[in-house]
Design goal:
244 residues, Double-stranded beta-helix, 8-stranded antiparallel beta sheet
Length: 244
């Protein structure tokens, strides 16, 4: 049998985190290094790999708050992760830390520490419904975007403003301010119908990562739900990757 399909063989690279292609993450587990990944994101694996849906996570869950719904992958082998053909990007986290919209996390090193923080608690705004991860330590995290992202540098003399529905991640060291774009009651945003649109203003030294989409991320899609279902708009209120 012959086909160009047979050219898409496994990439043989050494790093624990690597890209099979721009939409498929390849992670090596070797008995000493586990990986935390988004539940349901495994598309294939080889070797002796175990999947634990209730891992003892290295993150911090505040009492009464949601937590990121992850599974632990351990053993010896190679695991491939993807989520509805979103673009995958590997980021090396250093001592400066990274703040990420939790909707866009595909996988992360177990050596990293993460904490769930809500925007409304950070900025005193009620009802926005947005959750971020504060990721610190040394290790790698795989992020997803809907389309090719834009990396915007932030400097003391050049601050950046981003629509809150398009921002994916930013340097934790940045100063962040949140403000309403409009007071129109007809504005709809994926993180809850607040009656207002929100933007984040970044100041300091670092970067902000933006995706070319303001719609619900495809991980909230419903198969067979039509166009609205593809973007999670027919899901019950409160549906997300978080569980109580």
């Amino acid at each position: 049998m012959q086909s160009p399909l047979f050219a898409h063989v496994e990439v043989q690279d050494a790093p624990p985190f690597g890209l099979q292609n721009d939409k498929l993450l390849r992670v090596v587990v070797d008995g000493h290094r586990d990986v935390l990944a988004r539940k349901g994101s495994m598309v294939a694996y080889q070797g002796q790999v175990e999947f634990d849906g209730e891992p003892h996570q290295h993150g911090h869950r505040r009492p009464g708050r949601e937590h990121l719904d992850l599974m632990r992958c351990s053993g010896n082998g190679t695991v491939f992760f993807a989520n509805l053909a979103q673009d995958v990007h590997i980021v090396d986290v250093d001592r400066d830390g990274l703040t990420v919209d939790s909707s866009y996390v595909l996988a992360l090193d177990t050596g990293l520490h993460w904490e769930v923080v809500s925007v409304d608690s950070q900025y005193g705004i009620a009802g926005t419904g947005k959750y971020n991860l504060l990721i610190t330590g040394h290790g790698q995290v795989a992020l997803m975007t809907s389309g090719k992202p834009l990396m915007m540098p932030v400097t003391p003399d050049r601050y950046v403003s981003v629509d809150s529905d398009a921002v994916v991640a930013w340097s934790t060291a940045l100063t962040v301010q949140m403000q309403a774009q409009t007071s129109s009651s007809g504005v709809w945003r994926r993180r809850g119908n607040t009656g207002e649109g929100w933007e984040l203003n970044f100041m300091g030294t670092g970067f902000a990562l933006v995706q070319p989409s303001e719609l619900l991320p495809p991980q909230n899609a419903q198969i067979g739900g039509g166009v609205r279902g593809q973007f999670g708009m027919d899901r019950p209120t409160g549906g997300s990757i978080f569980t109580n």
